[in-house]
């Protein structure tokens, strides 16, 4: 298993300008997210891989922007949602319908959204085909929506229902790529061990994974940063949201005569607003 105590992402570019490579460890982040969402089995594995992949897309395409990845089930309206922020914080959400089951494969959809500086959004959607899983879906998204050819491997190693390790890599082809370099990398990736093999090895770090991918290829590390689980909820944000409610809605809540309880869907922390505070918000409004 990756033995760095802190989750981390490392970005590098080969000195000849052929490849951009991102390697990352997300073990602790995924463990915390899976625990917060109370998921097990395939849902936990897919959620972990979506979180890792969303971080990876942000790091390679939009390091300074928020990126959200959504996996929509092939059946029903169940979905997995992952958020990655420029400060390294990540969180995720499982949306379930009553009696619903998340199904990946033919008919499922991957949607990736980048939030642009002025609040607008760049959105790309691809349909999932076959059984390539999250890795293949991310490659299809980059190819179809961003016109970027990449090789991606994301993985969540499970022991029963417990997350053991998580991480992945991305190799992006750059404009300076020549036929010789492409042939070398193609052969290397064809023989490259599964990502799970590296995740189970205590000696593996994002840096050693990078060195394996770019063996005998001179490269320069161009960036790195910590990754962590971080929910964005807090009482001040919820209070600000409540203050935007129409007076009639606030009056209705006050008339019920009991504290307003709100639970965050991402982290399940519960916030309580007493009637006196609701009356204050109404008076300010």
Task: Provide structural commentary.
The protein is an alpha+beta fold and 285 residues long. It folds into two domains: 8-229, Hsp33 domain; 235-284, Alpha-Beta Complex (CBS domain Like), CATH 3.90.1280.10. 34% of the residues lie in helices and 31% in strands. It has nine helices and 13 strands. It has helices at 27-37, 41-61, 133-145, 179-191, 195-199, 206-213, 235-242, 247-255, 275-284, and strands at residues 8-14, 19-25, 66-72, 79-84, 89-95, 109-115, 121-127, 150-159, 162-173, 219-226, 228-229, 260-263, 270-273. A six-stranded mixed sheet has the order 7-6-3-4-5-11, with helices on one face. The chain has a five-stranded antiparallel sheet with strand order 8-9-2-1-10, with helices on both faces. A hairpin with a 6-residue loop joins β3 and β4. α2 runs parallel beside α3. The longest helix is centred in the N-terminal third of the chain and has 21 residues, at 41-61. The chain is elongated, with a radius of gyration of 21 Å. The mean pLDDT is 90.
């Amino acid at each position: 298993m990756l033995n760095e105590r802190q989750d981390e992402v490392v970005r590098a570019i080969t000195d000849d300008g052929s490849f951009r490579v991102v390697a990352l460890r997300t073990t602790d982040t995924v463990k915390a997210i899976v625990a917060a969402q109370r998921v097990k089995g395939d849902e936990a594995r897919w959620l972990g891989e979506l979180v890792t992949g969303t971080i990876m897309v942000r790091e390679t395409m939009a390091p300074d922007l928020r990126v959200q990845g959504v996996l929509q089930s092939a059946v029903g309206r169940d979905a997995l949602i992952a958020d990655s922020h420029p400060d390294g914080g990540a969180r995720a959400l499982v949306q379930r319908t009553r009696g619903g089951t998340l199904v990946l494969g033919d008919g499922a959809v991957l949607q990736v959204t980048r939030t642009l500086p002025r609040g607008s959004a760049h959105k790309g959607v691809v349909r999932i085909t076959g059984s390539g899983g999250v890795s293949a879906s991310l490659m299809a998204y980059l190819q179809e929506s961003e016109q970027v050819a990449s090789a991606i491997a994301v993985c969540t190693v499970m022991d029963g229902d417990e997350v053991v390790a998580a991480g992945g890599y991305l190799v992006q082809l750059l404009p300076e790529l020549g036929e010789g370099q492409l042939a070398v990398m193609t052969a290397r990736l064809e023989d490259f061990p599964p990502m799970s093999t590296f995740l189970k090895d205590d000696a593996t770090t994002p840096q050693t994974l990078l060195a394996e991918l770019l063996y005998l290829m001179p490269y320069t590390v161009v960036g790195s940063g910590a990754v962590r689980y971080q929910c964005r909820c807090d009482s001040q944000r919820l209070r600000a949201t409540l203050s935007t409610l129409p007076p009639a809605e606030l009056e209705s809540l006050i008339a019920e005569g009991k504290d307003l309880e709100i639970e965050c869907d991402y982290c399940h922390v519960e916030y309580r607003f007493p009637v006196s505070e609701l009356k204050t918000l109404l008076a300010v409004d």
